[in-house]
Amino acid sequence: MKPPIEFIKKENKKNILVFIHGFTSDSQTWTNSSKISLPEMLLEEELINTNFDVGYFNYFTKILDFRKTRFSAGLIKTVFGQISKSRKNIGIKNLSDHLKSSIELYCQEYENIVLIAHSMGGLISKAFILDDLIVNDDTKVKLFLSLAVPHKGTNWANIGGKLARKNPQIIDLKPLSNFLDQVNDDWIQKKDHLPKTVYYYGQFDEIVEEQNAVSFQVGKKLKIACNNDHFDICKPESTDSIVYRGIKRDLDEFVKELNFVDEMKPQKFLDDGKLDDEIFVLKLLIADIHKSLIDDSKQTFFNAEYMVRALINKGYSLDNLNELYSNLERLYRIYFVKFIEGEIKTSNELVVKIFENIIDRDREFLQTTIPLVDANKKTGMLQQLANSLDNDIWWAKDQSIKDIDHFRKARDICEE
To answer: Do 300 and 281 touch, CB atoms closer than 8 A?
Structure first.
C-alpha cells in the first residue's frame, strides 16, 4: 500500500508541490501517453527543481467499495480468522481531514505548500485550506492550481448516483449538495485570506463545464481556458501545452514572489563606518542628533536601499515610488515649519516627531500599492531624500552645504 504522501523528490527544500488526483483515479492520472508525468516534466525546469520537493497525495476512491464487491471473500476471511483489508469510500470532507493529517505528519518541515489538484482533488484541497484557516487563522498553502475542479458540482454525479447511490463522494459531487454549499459559502467568507488560486478549465470538458470549473467572483486573470477535455487536462503531452505553460508560469511567479519577499525582509545592518560620509548622516551629525537616532537612520536607510534593488529586480519602475517620496517630503516640511516657529523645540524632537508620524500614517497618507513597503522602509526613504544636496532636508535651522563642508574639514583635521 502506498503512503498517503508519496514523495517523488525529497531534498529538504522550503517548498513542496503536492499533486492530488480526482474521483476513481490515482497518481497515474498525471501521466501522458508517452509515460511521462506532469511532475517529471516540471522537474526538468531548473527554477522549479531548485525550489521544490514533489509528492503525490494518495487516497482511496472507487465507484463501488471493496467491502461490497468482495463481501463474500471478506466473510470467508473473517470466519477463518484472517485480517480483512477491505476499504470503503468516504466523503470529501473526510478525505480533506485525511489530507490535513498527512500533510501535518509528512510535510511539517515545509514552509510553503503548493497544491495542484485535478477534479474532485480540488474539492479535497479547498476543504483542507478552509479547515486550516478556521483552526489556525493561516495556512501553509500559498498557491492552489485548480484543474477541471467541479467547484459547483457536476451533472455527471446525478448519472453516477444511479450506479452507486450510496457512494458519499458522488453525493458530495452533485450540484447543490450540502457539502458544496458549505464549502463555497466558506470560500467566499474567507476570500481575503485564501491563497492565490488559478482556475484551469477544459473547453472540451463534458464532465465539468466552464461555469462549474470556476469558483465564484473570479477575475479573468485567474481563469485559464485550455483546449482539453476532463481527462487530458492533467497530463499534458508536451511543454508546449497551454496547461503546462500556465502551470510553469504560475510556479515561476510563485518562486519570484518568494524571493521578492525575502529581499524585502529587514536586512541585518553592521555599522562598519561605510555610511559615515553619506550626506544624510552628516546632516544628522551637524544637527547634533542623538546617536541612537543616527543609528536608527542608518539602519532604515540601509534597508530602503535594499528595497529599491528588490523592486527593480521585481520589475517595478522607480516612478512607482515618486508619489510616496513626495508625500514623505511634504510630511517633513510640515514638521520643519513647526520647528522653525518654535512649536517643536529641538532637532532631536523634530526627528522623533517625524519618525513617529511616519509610523502612525503608514497606512493612510503614506499608503502605497507597492507590496511590503512598511513604515521602517518609509523612514529610510526619507533619509534617501536627505542624502541628496538637491533636496532641502535638514535637521537644524539655517543649515546649508557650507556647514557640511566645514564639518568634513574639521573632522579631517581631527583625524590627522
So the answer is: no
**Are 54 and 203 found together in one domain?**
yes
196 and 311 inside one domain: no
- Claim to verify: residue 236 and residue 376 sit in the same structural domain: no
Q: What's the number of domains the chain is made of? A: 2
Contacts of 57 (CB under 8 A, 6+ apart): 4, 5, 6, 18, 19, 20, 21, 99, 102, 121, 124
| pLDDT tens sequence across 136-146 | 889 999 999 99
Spatial neighbors of 208 by CB under 8 A, at least 6 apart, are: 119, 148, 149, 150, 154, 156, 201, 202, 230
Give the pLDDT confidence of 269-305 residue by residue, as tens digits: 999 999 999 999 999 999 999 999 999 999 999 999 9
Same domain, 169 and 288: no
Instruction: State the DSSP H helix or E strand holding residue 15, giving kind and residue range, or none if neither.
Output: strand 15-20
Q: DSSP of 143-189, one letter per residue?
A: EEEEES--TT--THHHHHHHH-TT-HHHHHHSTT-HHHHHHHHHHHH
Range of the domain at 327: 267-415
**Do the beta carbons of residue 11 and residue 50 sit within 8 Å?**
no
Question: Do 282 and 400 fall into the same domain?
Answer: yes
CB 279, CB 388: distance < 8 Å = yes
Residue 374 and residue 136: Cα distance in Å, rounded?
A: 25
Same domain, 149 and 16: yes
